[in-house]
Amino acid sequence: MTRPRFCNSALKWIVFTFVIWVAVRGAQRTPEIASRLDPGKFYDALVGDSANAAIMKERHVDFSNETLRALDLRRTEAASNPESLAGGLLISRESLDRARERETARWYRENVNSEQARFNLERQQILAASKPAEPILCQPAQSGSAAGEARP
To answer: Which helix (H) or strand (E) holds 152?
Structure first.
């Protein structure tokens, strides 16, 4: 009789502990908490995240470029062989033109996003380079002491 009760209780504690662990780990990734726990690691991760974002945005631009090239190839094939776009097919000259316009708009958006990601990466790298290598723990010099004098 006590065995199922013990198992249920143990399972509840395991689930409760896991939920608390997930909440703590999630909170540690927020800027408000992570920057206070380990500032160096947090800002280094920002640089890494910015680099990853810039790479992904460049990939999006590359994908848009290749899609535009494929659409242009399809349009030139359709122009050279008009019967390939005969009635009843899913692809028509108008649908190719609309696809080209949509992909061109997407290409412009992806270029803007890529530029913004590069700008964010540069900004994070500048911030990372300007922060001191080690925290400064000594007190600032008093204004009344002469240069080169030892402080008490």
So the answer is: none
